[in-house]
Write a structure and sequence with these properties.
- About 55% of the residues lie in helices and about 5% in strands.
- With about 170 residues, the protein is mainly alpha-helical.
- The radius of gyration is 16 Å and the shape is globular.
- The mean pLDDT is about 95.
- It comes from Streptoalloteichus tenebrarius (strain ATCC 17920 / DSM 40477 / JCM 4838 / CBS 697.72 / NBRC 16177 / NCIMB 11028 / NRRL B-12390 / A12253. 1 / ISP 5477).
Length: about 170
């Protein structure tokens, strides 16, 4: 499995460096929490919600990155698998999908996200749901979203095979 190096976020610096540093740390944490996990365990549900699997969390985070950076900020077409009829489709990878491929897709997606954000001022705003949203808000939201799901992954991983920490 490809390992992503996790670097501590900066303790000083401008707002963009701190926000980006925390987001990249959390993105790498997702990879760290998945290290050594088999495909079978990655698809196994251990919580009451059958959607909350390690594989499902990684897939969901990939599509959340796509939605906020490519679709909302860059105005590109929505490609995520969810629809009005199935709002949870991004949580259900096909059983034959490997964890490695999900993590590779996630890393490729956040590389695109990073590039989009780097090209926009933090105060840049785009139309969103009858109002506007700024790049700064999206970055803070993605820190929150990724941290929340990293916590879910902590619990899922411990229940799957007892691995804790990191």
């Amino acid at each position: 499995m490809t390992m992503i190096t996790r670097t501590d976020p900066p303790t000083t610096g401008d707002e963009r460096a701190v926000l980006g540093g925390f987001l990249d740390f959390l993105r790498a944490t997702i990879h760290t929490k998945c290290a050594g996990l088999s495909d079978a365990l990655a698809h196994r549900s251990v919580l009451p919600s059958p959607l909350t699997t390690a594989a499902g969390l990684v897939m969901h985070l990939r599509w959340v990155e796509h939605y906020w950076f490519e679709h909302v900020l860059a105005g590109l077409p929505h490609r995520a698998p969810w629809t009005e009829e199935d709002l949870d489709a991004d949580w259900r990878p096909a059983p034959e999908t490997t964890l490695e491929s999900l993590l590779t897709d996630y890393a490729a997606q956040y590389a695109v996200s990073r590039e989009i954000a780097a090209g926009l001022a933090l105060d840049h705003e785009v139309a969103f749901r009858g109002g506007t949203v700024s790049v700064r808000w999206v970055l803070v939201h993605m820190v929150e979203e990724t941290a929340r799901h990293a916590g879910h992954l902590d619990v899922v991983r411990e229940l799957l095979d007892g691995v804790t920490g990191e």
